[in-house]
Each structure stands twice: as structure tokens, then as C-alpha cells.
Amino acid sequence: MELRLKYGTLRLVHGDITEQRVDAIVNAANSRLMGGGGVDGAIHRAAGPELHRECMEIIRKIVRLEHGNAVYTRAGRMKERGIRWIIHTVGPVWRGGKHGEPEILERCYRNSMKLAREIGARTMAFPSISTGAYGYPVEKAAKIALSAIMDELEKHEGIDEVRMVLYLREVFDTQLETLRELGSGN
Ligand code: ADP
Predict the structure, then answer these.
(1) CA–CA dist 17, 9 (Å, integer)
(2) Which of 65, 86, 98, 151 is the most buried (most CB within 10 A)?
(3) Whose CA is nearest to atom 15 of ligand 1?
(4) pLDDT value for 183
(5) Average pLDDT over the chain, rounded to an integer
(6) In the structure, which protein residues have their CB atom closer than 6 angstroms to any atom of ligand 1?
(7) Buried-state track 63-95, b at ≥16 Cβ within 10 A, e below 16
């Protein structure tokens, strides 16, 4: 499904983010940019060791990436697939929802898109941040993710397409339902 907003298109895809041909992919990283399981591990494997080196250079300067913030690196071997940048953002760990989790998650999407505009990425892909190891409920996360992306695409020029790439079928189905609800008012 896709939804056309003022400045760009939001598209939902069931698949693997490392296989998308877009200018930038977003990584659900951890604050030490260490690489780990889930989508982070898949991105590091696909990019190769150069990505880890670049991440460690960033950590030498900033020590840790705070939840909700975003930085970018090059894409290592994924360059061969047409991916130019990886935007790393750290989602909130779900602790019941009253510890600022929704605000942090929203900032992950908005800050990643802001960074994409700054570096000139015109197409980008997001995973469903925080809904794996960090435990954020999928439906709540879908509402925040899609609303934030839609709002950014209504307000700011620069990104032609944002793809939400959902790896698990049930997460894709939830996002689809949520987008239908949000998009019907559009
Ligand atoms: P977090 O720590 O932010 O929860 P995870 O990587 O554990 O990050 O999970 C985030 C989401 O990414 C989950 O919905 C998971 O199913 C999904 N995911 C895992 N591998 C991939 C992949 N290769 N492409 C896209 N999404 C993926």
C-alpha cells in the first residue's frame, strides 16, 4: 500500500530492509552503535566490517547516541546495492509507556528524516523501530511511526519516498491496518 502526501510517498513493504534499493536505510541501533541482533545485526552483516569501524569512530567522539537521536554512516558493501547511507537511531526500551517512550519513538522517525534531508537522501527505508528486542507494542508503535512520517512528508520537501519495511508478516498486517485508518482522514 502507498499513500501520497504533499511532498512524498509513504509505502509499506513486507521484506528485508537490507535488500531495498533506496538512498538511505535506517538502523534500529543501540546507544553504543555496537551492532547486535535483529535488524541491527542484519545491517552490519550486509554492510561488512567497514561499518563497525565507522561506528566506532563516531562513538569515540560522542561516547553514546542518546535514545531518539540519529547519526549517519556510509553503507559499506551495501553501496553495491545502491544504498549510500545508513542512518542509526536508538529507539526507546518499552517500560510500560509512561517513561517518555512515545515521544522518544516519534523523535527517532523525525530526526532520521531530518538527517536524510540534510544529507540529500531522497528515498529512505525504516524498520519498525523498538518492536523487537526493545519490546514496544507493535500497534502503538505503528501509529507513532506512520503519523510522524506522514506529518514530515506533509511539512517538508526533500524526501520523495519513505518505505516502511516490515520483516514479519504480522507486523506488516498491523501497519497496513493502521495506515488505512490514518490515511482515510487524508
Ligand atoms: P529494537 O531493538 O529496536 O526492538 P529489533 O531489531 O530487535 O530492534 O527489531 C525491530 C524490528 O525489526 C522488528 O519488527 C524485527 O522483526 C525487524 N527486523 C529484523 N530483521 C529485519 C530486517 N532484515 N529488515 C527489516 N526489519 C527487520
Answers:
(1) 17
(2) 86
(3) 132
(4) 84
(5) 97
(6) 16-18, 28, 38-40, 42, 91, 127-134, 165, 167-168, 171
(7) eebebbbbbbbebbebeeeebbbbbbbbbbebe
Cell numbers that stand for 43 in this block: 545491517
Tens digit of each residue's pLDDT (9 = 90 or more) over 124-160: 999 999 999 999 999 999 999 999 999 999 999 999 9
3-class SS of residue 56: helix
40 noted as active-site residue: yes
Atom of ligand 1 nearest to the CA of 91: 3
Which residue blocks in the chain are alpha helix, DSSP H? 38-47, 49-62, 101-119, 138-155, 169-183
| Ligand 1 atom having least distance to the Cα of 38 | 6
Classify residue 53 as exposed, middle or buried by CB count within 10 Å of its CB (0-12, 13-18, 19+): exposed
CATH superfamily of 2-183: Leucine Aminopeptidase, subunit E, domain 1 (3.40.220.10)
Pocket residue to mutate for ligand 1, from 139, 167, 175, 178, most atoms within 8 A of Cβ: 167
